[in-house]
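Problem 12. The chain below contains 277 residues. Write out its predicted structure in token notation.
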Amino acid sequence: MLSETNFYRFVREERLFCTTLAHLLMQRGPNLSAFLKLINDKLPHDSQIESTRLEEAQIYVEFTFLRDYWKTLKANDEKRSLIFDLLAKVDTLKRFTSDTFPGGFADFNACFMGERGRRIEFDIVYPGQWSVTTLFARFGAQPDEFRDFCRFKWAFNIKPDIVILLPESPPLCIEAKLESREGWYPTSKAECQIFDKLFGLEQGRVGQIKLQQFMFGVLLDDPCQSVVIGAVPEVSDVPFLAWHEVFGELDLSSSIGYVHRLIGENRHVNALGRGIR
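Solution.
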């Protein structure tokens, strides 16, 4: 069946198109500059992305900075310090210092994970594993604090699709969609019910792009420029590019024939465009 059917014509895996775009942007030549021009054409003049030092660009697919930075920390005092150094950057959470919470690992973990955390006696648990239910029980009386503790937790788990780091420019944070729409947090039914009870039906939830902006701008002290690549615009204040628009401006000459066929013949990439010449 694989030899008789060209999967590249109908594959709809977003990560494939992200890696293909990253492959093209990492090549020497005009592609990164052409891509930045597409973005700059959507931005006000005073928000243009600097493009004079492209050789120093860093391009990441699924940018897991906080998750992987946490993994570099071996000592529990380093982990605890990171948590409170980052919490101090969030206006609603500045009042929570290390002295606010128990010193023992098990009791500390229980503050954010409930009884499950109390079973972890010798290590400070990764914030991405904190429990929304436990955070609600402990901080729900102050809704803004509760939501920001949740945003803090979620920021450790998010994986922006493509991030481009350029000297003297804000990080470019690219959210890529094919058929799906922007995701929202929380995701589980039980957690959504907590948010609905506290903030009102479908109120208070946090979109993917706002969460990415929170991670970069608040926790990492480096506000990002968000960009969406997809089928239809969703977020009015974020530059939008269509897949066929992006790929149509890029030089494919250094890529194998499969890349040409994927971009030129895939039904989803070209659904709203004329294809790639």
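Discussion. The first strand starts at residue 58 and ends at 61. Students who got a different answer should revisit the alignment rule from Section 12.3.
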